[in-house]
Amino acid sequence: MTPPIDFIILRPADAPLMREMLGTFARAFEDPETYLGNQATDAYLSDLLGKAHFIAICAKTGPAVVGGLVAYQLDKFEQDRREIYIYDLAVDAEFRRRGIATAMINLLQDEALRRDAYVIFVQADLVDAPAIALYEKLGIKETAHHFDIAPARKTAPA
């Protein structure tokens, strides 16, 4: 029998779980350099987990972290309202297709209601069919273009 999956909204004392989630993201995205190459200190992670705009949810079975979700609360300027942006969501390969990602999003929906957010949004790569299928069953698809802009200009303006 498979042990139950526990879902936890991480708090400042949960920096070790956050660190384990980094391993989950590294495996799921096949990107160990980004997630494991230059990890933040426990103090940094604890501070981040204590910030009002940061939400981290982990899925655990026994002592093992098998899934993670990281989201950011965006406070809007045009009205007194908030949006939640899912930045990363991953489940270890051997635990997929068991409703873990959906359960983490459901927990985020509860947290979004608690925070009086009016929407949760996420983006998925066009080639990521499993992610697209998950998000289509939970929400409405909008088509947009994503642009990465460097934080510093490469040349002087004309």
Please render the helix and strand layout as text.
Blueprint: E1 6-9, H1 15-28, H2 32-36, H3 42-49, E2 54-61, E3 64-75, E4 82-91, H4 100-114, E5 117-122, H5 129-138
Parallel strand pairs: 4-5
Antiparallel strand pairs: 1-2, 2-3, 3-4
Helix pairs in contact: 1-3
The share of residues in helices is 25-40%
| Rg | 17 Å
| Major pleated sheet | 5 strands, mixed
Instruction: Give helix and strand order, one letter per element, not per position.
Output: EHHHEEEHEH
The average pLDDT value, as a whole number, equals: 88
By DSSP (H or I, 4+ residues per run), the number of helices equals: 5
Low-confidence stretches: none
Read across the widest sheet, the strand sequence of neighbours is: 1-2-3-4-5
Range of strand content: 25-35%
List how many beta strands DSSP finds.
5
The separation of the N and C termini measures 66 Å
Pairing-aware structural class of the strands and helices?
Answer: alpha+beta
Q: Can you tell me the overall shape?
A: globular
